[in-house]
Structure formats: C-alpha cells, structure tokens
Specification:
With 561 residues, the protein is α/β, with parallel strands linked by helices. The chain contains 15 helices and 28 strands. Helices cover 27% and strands 22% of the residues. It has an eight-stranded parallel beta barrel. Strands 3, 4, 7, 8 and 9 form a five-stranded antiparallel β-sheet that branches. The protein has a five-stranded antiparallel β-sheet with strand order 22-23-24-28-26, with helices on one face.
Length: 561
C-alpha cells in the first residue's frame, strides 16, 4: 500500500509509485529541508521518517522543483492542490458492529453530503440518521466524497480517491458518521469512481502512467488497468473504504466505462477481494456479465425509471425514446431489463440484484433545471410513483434524498473549479450536452459554477414537518412499513411477480394475494378486493376520505384479493 503509513513503533513510512520523475523527495511542512526518497525496482520509492506522526503535512517533490500532494493521500485539509496530511485510522475507536443487510428486504437511501443539510457536513448528516431509521430505510448510500476541487461538487470530479473532502469534515468525522449509522443498524454504502479522475488537481500522470493513452471516457482519460500498480491502487482504495471507514459496501460508478483486456477483469478482482462488502455496479449496458463474469451482488437498473417517468411526464427524448407505453412499464416491472443484450434473460435474474428508483441524482440532476418528479408532474402523480417503486417492483428500491417528503428544492448540477478556463468549459459543455439530449429549457440551465446553483440544491429538512410535504412523508413511511409487514412486497418475489395492462392501468400481482394497481391514465379504474393502501388517501394529501374500489386518474393502490 502506497501513501503515508504510521508505523507501530513510531514514525511514518512514506512511499509512492513514481517511475516518471528522475528524483522524488519528501517535504514535510515545517520540518526543514527535503528528504530524498530511496528508489526501488519497478519505479517505487520510499523513506521512513522516525520523528513524523499523524497530523504532519507533506508533499512529494518531483525532480527538485514540483511539490505535489500524495496520489494516495488520506486527507487534503487545504484542498486538492495543498499538502497531504498523515492520518492514522487506528486511532478512531468504532463502538458499533456493522448490521446485516438483507437485499431481499432492504430499502436504500441516496444522499449528497454537501446538500443534505444546511451545514453540508458528515456530522450534520449523522444527526439526521435517526429520522431515516424512523422512515424505514435500511442503508444510506453516499454520493462520492473523495476530495474534489473547490467547495461544491457532485463528487464525480474527485482527484484524491482515498481522501474524504475537507469541506465535509475530517476522516474521523466520516468514521463517526459510519459508526452512528451502525448504532442505528443502518448500513453505509460508498459511491466510488474508478473509471476516471477529475481534471483539476489530478497530478497522477506526473508520477506514473496511471492512465491509458488509447482509452478515454466521456469524463476524462481512463485508468490503465493492464498495469498491476494501477489495479492495486484501485483495490487498495476499495479496501480502505471497507476497512478504515467500515463502510458496508461500494457502489461502483459507470463500470461500462472501465476498460480492461486482462485475462481477469479488474472488476472481477475487485469483487473477489472486497468481500464481505456488498458490491453494486452502476451501468447502462444491462449485461449479465456484471453478475456472471465480474461477480457483483446487484446493479442499478434504469429501465424501470425510464418507463415510469415517460408514462407520467409524456417525455420521449433523450433517455426516454424507447419508453412511454403501459406495456413497456408492465414488462419492465415484471422482468427488469428491456434494453441491452440480455432482456429475455433478465426475467430469471433474482429481484435483489436490481436496484430501482423513480428518482436519483442522475435522473434529477441531469435535467436542465434539476426538477424533481413532484415538480414535473405534481404531488398526485408523484405519490403514484412512490407506490410503484416501493410496492409494485420486485426489486431493491433506492430513494433520493428529499423524495420522501417531496422536497421543494431542485437538485442541479454544480461545480466550483478554480481554473477559469476549465470553469468556462464546464459551463459551456453542460449546456451543449443538455441541448444534444433534447432537454427543454437547456438554454436556461443554471451555470454550474455559480454558488446559487449549489444553494438552490440544498434540501430544506424542515419541509417534512409542514403540509403538503408531511403528508408525502407519511405515505413513504407507511409504504416502508408495509414492505416489512408483507413479505410479498420485498425483492425476493420477482419470479412469481406478474404484470399486465388492463383498462388503462398497469396491474401487478405480487403473490400471496397482494396486487398493486397503477392508474397512470386519465380515466377512473374500478378494482376489486380490500384496499390496503391508496395513494389518494387524505392522510397522504389526496382527495379520498375512506378506502374505495375506484382508482382515480394518476393514482395507485395496494389490494388484498
């Protein structure tokens, strides 16, 4: 493992993979002169400093004149261009064991640390975890927290994969967040990005050939996983999150953009070595090799989102060109995938392997104005979407922060690059991308670099205490209670789930005599059976004072038949 390692007997060992510079020295801030690092076979270098300790700040000096932060830095307290800080993970005392996460029953919750609370810190987010436990959530999935340039970013521009962003707090603050979650029996999943690094503050190429000159992703140069050192860099990072922070799993971003022609794909090696951690893939390729060849436990599946969103909004551009009719929605609910090379085989894939949502950071934030579903179609249709996601689909649902109370805040794309040329390029590129995808109002999209774009995206947790947001929160709480009470509503029932279209609605048989009806049309639909939950119940802000077999337009119900 490279980086700064506090030794048991005292002192710190500093090491790096750096075959490109002619010489590498260590500069400890306030220590005196630079210390030459010993060169080893394979381009590695190291030096042990007996008097150094946790908290020391340091640079690696390349060729005598370029002071650069550590490629494996555990903390960047002064930002991505500043000195790295020595961190000793073992000094934090975890008090609570990791919970057992059963995906057949689990509900996940995605949050962005910087906008989840007004403070935007790990500590502030930890204080809100009891409310998520009360809601019925089983695991919290953090959008990437690795150090990025500036104070504001989604996290996918990270350049120090091992270092939590200083704007959110210290490494121990993140450890305390995990420990607090575990005290509530909430699991923690970390979103990690291995397909690229951000453009600003990325000094890795000055040290070594981390990236492939032949491969490039939409977001930057692709790491060269044919090199053992780069593979180990990825694996060390994954194990650092799992061991040093005791997170319970990893959501690996855009695995379709991770290129590797090695006999064993780097993702297969990751899934082997990161056990017993939960491994979730994010991919748009809908390919069974994610499970069969690489070994992931589950993957994000967007087809359900696209089908539901297109039915509710009428949108047919960008993501939604192949979606929009009720039959497609029913097929997606029953099978999982309808795109990609293996739509037929997806019927046999167990439900716990699919993560589904009606809203995520991608689907909300990649709109021109960052509108949530409730902003686009109103609360009535948003309540239908909640029932569809949490009761109709035999998969693992994930909620996007604020969805559970129909947050009034949008979630827009924001950055805070310090390089003026890069900042302009990001702003212009964002608008061009939106126009190319056919989104309306692309020309009105807010500038990602403006602080106001970030401030608008912070959710107001006070919303959930006032109507109509409180009514939406009650709906989500009751739906999650039902999922725990009725085993047929979990993710394990995919093989016995049946979905069909009748009378302008999608009907879903979840087994054990439980049906879910989604009336996305404009006409009333009459049902039969005992109503267990109705999205138009007055408790949830609807118009019905009592259970009724009549399903109004844009509403949903759960029945016992």
């Amino acid at each position: 493992m490279f980086g700064a390692e506090v030794l048991p007997g005292g002192g710190v060992r500093f090491s790096a993979w750096a075959p490109r510079p002619r010489s590498v020295a260590l500069r400890i801030v306030g220590y005196g002169g630079d210390l030459p690092m010993q060169q080893h076979e394979g381009g590695t270098c190291s030096v042990v400093v007996p008097g150094a300790s946790a908290g020391a700040r340091y640079f690696f000096v390349l060729d005598g004149d370029r002071a650069r932060p550590d490629p494996c830095s555990r903390f960047q307290p002064d930002g991505v261009h500043g000195p790295s800080q020595v961190v000793c993970p073992s000094t934090f005392s975890f008090r609570h064991p990791s919970p057992t996460l059963d995906l057949t029953k689990a509900v996940l919750y995605e949050l962005h640390v910087g906008t989840f609370t007004r403070e935007g810190t790990f500590a502030a987010a930890a204080r809100e975890l009891p409310v998520l436990k009360e809601l019925g959530v089983d695991a919290v999935e953090l959008m990437p927290v690795s150090a990025f340039p500036g104070e504001r970013n989604w996290g996918y521009d990270g350049v120090h994969p091992f270092a939590p962003c200083a704007a959110y707090g210290s490494p121990d603050d993140l450890r305390a967040f995990t420990d607090t979650a575990h005290s509530l029996e909430l699991a923690v999943i970390m979103d990690v990005v291995y397909n690229h690094l951000g453009p600003e503050g990325n000094y890795l190429t000055e040290f070594a050939p981390y990236f492939s000159p032949q491969r490039r992703t939409l977001w930057g140069d692709a790491p060269d996983f044919s090199r053992r050192e780069v593979r180990d860099w990825l694996l060390d990072n994954a194990l650092a999150w799992l061991r040093e922070y005791r997170v319970d799993g990893l959501r690996v971003d855009a695995v379709h953009a991770m290129f590797d022609d090695s006999p064993k794909h780097v993702l297969a090696e990751l899934c082997e070595k990161a056990r017993p951690g939960l491994l979730i893939a994010e991919t748009d390729m809908n390919d069974v090799k994610v499970f069969d060849d690489w070994g992931f436990d589950a993957c994000w599946s967007d087809d359900f989102h696209h089908a539901l969103h297109a039915c509710l909004t009428g949108e047919r551009t960008g993501y939604y060109r192949s979606f929009g009719d009720l039959t497609t929605l029913a097929t997606t609910i029953e099978s999982g995938w309808i795109r990609g090379p293996h739509p037929c085989r997806s019927r046999a894939i167990p439900g716990p392997r699919f993560i589904v949502a009606s809203q995520t950071h991608d689907q909300v934030g990649n709109r021109a104005m960052g509108e949530r579903l409730s902003h686009l179609v109103g609360l009535r249709a948003a309540r239908l979407a909640a029932v569809a996601t949490l009761a109709a689909v035999p998969c693992v649902p994930i909620l996007f922060m604020g969805e559970e109370f129909a947050s009034s805040s949008p979630f827009q794309y924001f950055t805070s690059h310090g390089d003026p040329a890069l900042a302009r390029a990001v702003s212009l590129g964002r608008r061009r991308d939106l126009e190319a995808q056919g989104f309306s109002h692309a020309e009105q999209a807010p500038d990602p670099q403006e602080e106001g774009t970030f401030l608008r995206s912070r959710i107001d947790l006070g919303d959930r205490l006032v109507e109509p947001h409180a009514a939406t929160w009650r709906l989500y709480r009751d739906l999650l209670t039902l999922r725990r009470r009725l085993s047929s509503l979990g993710a394990q029932g995919k093989q016995r789930c049946r979905a069909w279209v009748d009378r302008g609605a999608a009907w879903v048989d979840r087994g054990d005599g439980v049906q879910v009806v989604l009336n996305v049309g404009d006409q009333e639909v009459r049902t039969s059976g005992t109503v267990i939950l109705h999205s138009e119940d007055a408790r949830y802000g609807g118009s019905l004072g009592r259970p009724t077999p009549v399903l109004p337009p844009r509403s949903a119900c759960i029945l016992k038949v």
